[in-house]
Amino acid sequence: MVSHRSYRHTVPGIDMDELGGLLIVVEGPDSSGRSTQIWLLSRWLEQQGFAVEQMGLKRSKLVANELEQAKNGNVMSPRTMALFYATDFYDQLENRILPALRAGSVVLADRYIFTLMARDMARGAPFEWLEPLYSMAVIPDAVYLLDTSAENILDRTLSSRGQLDYWESGMDLGLARDWYQSFMTYQQSMRHQFEPLMERFSIERVDGDRSILEVHEDLKSRIEGVLAGFADHRRG
Fold first, then answer.
1. Ranges of H-type helices in 1-54
2. Domain total for the chain?
3. Which domain holds residue 55?
């Protein structure tokens, strides 16, 4: 059975030795192609005979609606935003991730705590405050960051949505009055915040500027190695 650990503290009442599934995380900014890759990987894994559970940001039944309403009002402070997303994460950890791992499923996370940390650090939160906040998170078996240029993210965002998002443009930070300039500055800041996280949390960089198929094949080849180790544990 695969052995799972949390970063520091175990969720109360959870026996980590009972968690036999896999947790695979795909990180990346909006319009990096991340959600498309999660969908493709889910289909591929199911074809290989694996049960798959997906999780992502703002999917908690507990606070998702309230979080969306707060974001629409453009009035959240950085601390409120951080705690909203942490609540969203822990509700999904307890009710989706842990049960799926206990059942032996592969959990595909459409972003995890790392995007949350990077966002909060970009808004002034010290890592020393964030690390204990997410100390009960289960350590993933693999984390991949779709490293995509700000120019490509901008083009894809405008092509798919026709407009920029207030929060993903960092407009709450007062980086610039112009939305375009604020977006570019914020995306560069997020990329900068991810650099120390990549080394600390063993996040693998994946070139997100390539075609959907090229990125998918790259992710598949990397995940096949994780699955091989998973199969060896199960046979053992």
1. 34-47
2. 1
3. 16-153+194-235
